[in-house]
Amino acid sequence: MMLSINSPQPLPPQTIAQSLAKAQALSSRIAAVNEISLELNRSLNVPEILQTVGKQAKWLLDFEHLSVYLLERGSPRLITLFGASTTLTDAALATIDPISRALKSRQPQLIREQAGVFLSNFASAIVIPLENQRQIFGTINFATTHTAAYTIDDIRIGYLLALQLAGAIQNAERFEELNRINALLEQEKQKSEQLLLNILPQQIASELKQSGRVKPVYYESASVLFTDIKDFSKLSEQVSPEALVAELDECFSYFDRVSAKYNLEKLKTIGDSYMCVGGIPSANTTHAIDTVLAALEMQLFMRLRKLQARKRNLPYWDIRVGIHSGPLLAGVIGQKKFAYDVWGDTVNTASRMESCGIPEKVNISQATLDLVRDFFQVEYRGKVAAKIKARSICILWLVSTTNCPLIPVGYSRTIAF
């Protein structure tokens, strides 16, 4: 027995032409998707990306409505890209609406008649999930009033566009998230910088960050100021610890502002003692004048607080202030809890100027007087015993707060007493 195999019948020319035209049309649409993809990848801004889709998608599908539903954290939203705006309610999502089905099944939805609750004005629709790295975060929705308007090829084209759109949105959101993180890091950096500047002068902090260490600097002339509260231990017994700390904070905070105003560098507070220096870390020739002006303003502030306290029958504080000018060494000590500090006989002498001082007055040394004598009225106090190195005698001068200082050129503010 012989078997015969029938050869396939050739397709009609019309069918071949139709298939060819269909393939060419599909190829053109795929090329258009690629063009849109290039446009999408030029932006890292979600609104711009969606705007591009709204303008370019007409080359791919015939629709009267185009929207994107995004499952954003805490606030899902429907964005209409083409056609009349519409809304999507929670009730619609709770039903068997195409969007709800697409999100749950992770599969495109082809609707040939009656497009669902939120697209109730349309007859045909395609709803395609937006997925990237196995994460569904929304849908892209096409709709028209024509019945059975969409085919499987339309779903394929819509799916390709959805892939490109999903990738572009995710890239943009990652970029925005990266910007947010960078902004937060910058804020934290600024906080750290500010904290460091509260501890160290700016140029010292910069040197420490760059090299990990700070080289000590010798200054030929600087002015050191000390303040101290008279009978602090006795006065502290008359108020609560909270009130005591609050009072110290208010006084020293004001001293900080005065120090900054006159370009002094605050170094430390030790108990009821406040210390600052003029002429460091940037050397200048006006440090003695700056320091005396600051001291006078500090005394004036404390005098006014004293008057207010007396009216209210409250305890008050008197402070002694001492200043000495001369050479010193400045630098940073320690590897933890850095401290910018100064050393030398000038510091010790300034401390003695304070301890030998009188409340409501500013004690200055001969060295400071020599630098400010042309600008302030002073009273000679005489020789006072002070323990500096061996027991020696130091000549002290008194800057009186009962007279107005003669403000030097460059200082526009007049202090009235």
What does this molecule look like?
The protein is α+β, with helices and mostly antiparallel strands. It folds into two domains: 19-177, 2-Layer Sandwich (Beta-Lactamase); 216-399, Alpha-Beta Plaits. Helices cover 43% and strands 25% of the residues. The chain has eleven helices and 13 strands. It has helices spanning 13-40, 46-56, 90-94, 98-105, 152-199, 202-211, 232-236, 241-261, 287-311, 345-355, 366-372; strands at 65-70, 77-82, 109-111, 124-132, 135-144, 217-229, 264-270, 273-278, 319-333, 339-343, 362-365, 378-387, 391-399. Strands 6, 7, 8, 9, 10, 11, 12 and 13 form an eight-stranded mixed beta sheet that branches. Strand 4 and strand 5 (135-144) form a beta hairpin. Helix 1 packs parallel to helix 5. It is elongated and about 130 Å long. The termini are far apart. Mean pLDDT is 80; it is low at 401-417.
Core attributes:
417 residues; alpha+beta; Beta-Lactamase; Alpha-Beta Plaits; 2 domains; 11 helices; 43% helix; elongated
Radius of gyration: 41 Å
Query: Strand percentage, roughly?
Result: 15-25%
Question: What is the SS-derived class?
Answer: alpha+beta
Number of domains: 2
Reported by name, the CATH topology of the largest domain is Alpha-Beta Plaits
Major β-sheet, in short? 8 strands, mixed
Number of E-type strands: 13
| Run of helices and strands | HHEEHHEEEHHEHHEEHEEHEHEE
Q: Can you identify the CATH superfamily of the largest domain?
A: Nucleotide cyclase, GGDEF domain
In which range does the helix fraction lie? 40-55%
Mean pLDDT figure: 80
The dominant shape is elongated
CATH architecture of the largest domain: 2-Layer Sandwich
